[in-house]
Amino acid sequence: MTRPADDPPREPAVHPPPIEVHDLTVSYDKKPVLWNIDVAFPEGQIIGVLGPNGAGKSTLIKAIMGLLPIESGWVKINGRPLARERRAVGYVPQRESVDWDFPVTVADVVLMGVYGRLGLFRRPGRADREFCANCLEQVGMATYADRQISQLSGGQRQRVFLARALAQDSRIYLMDEPFAGVDAATEAAIIELLRAMKRQGRTLLVVHHDLQTAPEYFDSMLMLNMRLVAFGPTRDVFTTQVLHKTYGGRLTILSEAAEQVAGTRR
Amino acid sequence: MNYSLVLLLADGDWPQFVRFWSLRDPAVRAALAGVLFLGVSSGLLGAFIVLRRLSLLGDSLGHAVLPGVCLGFLVAQAKDPRWIFGGALAAALVASWLITLIGRRSVLKPDACMGLVMSGFFGIGYMLLTRIQQLPFGSRQSGLNQVLFGQASAISDRDLWFMGVATLVIVLGVGLAYKELTLTSFDEQFAATIGVPTRTVHYLLMTLVALSIVISIQAVGVVLLSAMLITPAAAAWLLTDRLPVMLLLSVLFATAGGVLGLNASFMGRNLPTGPFIVVTLSGIFAGAWCLAPQHGLLQRWLRRRRHRLRAQRENVLKSIYLAAEASQAAGGTPPAPIAVSLARLAGYRDESPPKLRAALRPLVRRGLIDVAAEQVVLTPLGAERAIEIIRNFRLWERFLTEEASLPVDHTQAGAEQLEHILSPDLARELEARLSDGKS
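ok -> structure tokens follow
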């Protein structure tokens, strides 16, 4: 007997992209900050999201993660809505987004990575703890497991967030400025870790602001300035012309338009 | 206990004290049970309120329940706990809804919204309260004017029932949603991305907080009840960096403050309980603030003092070495044992002989120097330490001038500070870098 139609076919004819963004417009406080973004990210790459301040880099990541209301357009993960693919996507927020005086240990924070798999009200068990200890080991922070998180340096905090992401064990990761304000040793360790994750076939979307290191780190790049300026392999996109278009003067028109749009909505 | 004893001595009322702790009086038993329920519920919830920076919201809701209490009384025309608790709960929920609404539909920030709603509701409540006292059935019910500052001895068996059930709900709620409450308190965005219903968790917490506020009206009173939520949790946070320990301490402090405050108010015969409980809690907080192991005032003072004394000792040690070096004609490394006369050292340090002797005493005690026949001699240990300090000082001075390219007159103070705290590891690294620069 055939299955009822409400169960979608398990293996679609064409393998869907890990992340597909279609005609996405997002507004902050009634002011549009991302206009009509259309992009499909390829699998198994480290993809950089670059653009000037206020270009909407973090906004794009947050909108994909469902943290911001979408004004129009849609996002699909593995060809399905995010709500049905949450476990496929891991998220590394900006380091400053949390209070590091919070009374938890490094191990506690990493353990939060498995909460998504546990579901509501269920407590993590011994196997989860061992798995997290292993994740902490991979970022070189095993000896810090019992430390309170306020005692960590900026780079160590970033590693703890990455260990939590590893504990999520997702196929796709969205990372908001993982290299911001870390020391050189940590930066090297992080990129090594990201490359190891890529070798396991994972897809990594990384918000980045340092143009110096960008071409060395990323397989593909998304150039963003409120709208999508360019997307493609690094050697095609990381050109003087595209950079000029991304960081150059044209943005004033869009931001002025945004102000006016916001004005009509007040 | 000590606190109660102090009050006991002041009053000299031994029989009251015995009456309280013998638990013979049913009113005392009911009040104690009520305060214990209160301690557990507000201690638990308070920890999350403080961690989520919602302390002001707790305070606002506390004041906002007053009109609900009065309306409940007006409807029932008696002090019926069902109506009083129901009215208070409804007022708290309406107030929190209003705070959110004003914030969303205006440019006002949360603190202004909370202040507006809190004072408005409290004003209405107080007007209703004075009106009720003029009503014929109002004057008979002496219970209602105690809602401002609380009177635990007025807790009836029926009140106790409500408080017990509410406490059970709160303990179960926190126990069941502990993982979700912790996660959303620490990192709400991350929680949302893994599918935790953050808004539901928030409303669950706020409902439980409203419940705990409602049951603390009787014992603490609407004016001060937010202290039950905030003060014990704040004191607990200063003492630990583990959430489970914080919850435990918070509950412990809240119940201890409740019981001791109740005892104190009982000794004063029918004084309102709320202020006594809050003063006791504030005392606990002050103690925690002073004695906290890491950032407490006492620890900080001791640490600074220890560092200052060490810096003084090391400076004396350094000056002995340098004075001995200066008295060498050639100016090279002084021969072992390094020694200098007291008179010369006093001159070098520009210090009176009695002051110098006082400064030398701690060094003698530590076996760093010997003083004999007006001569100061560095012991092998003292010489080793002196050389280390001087090397640190010169390393850092060179680092500042060469690597950080500061002019020489800027380096003195910085180097003087750092030589005492430079770790051996950092000193080695500094040495390596400076010798690298040379080659």
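Chain B has two domains: 3-295, 302-436.
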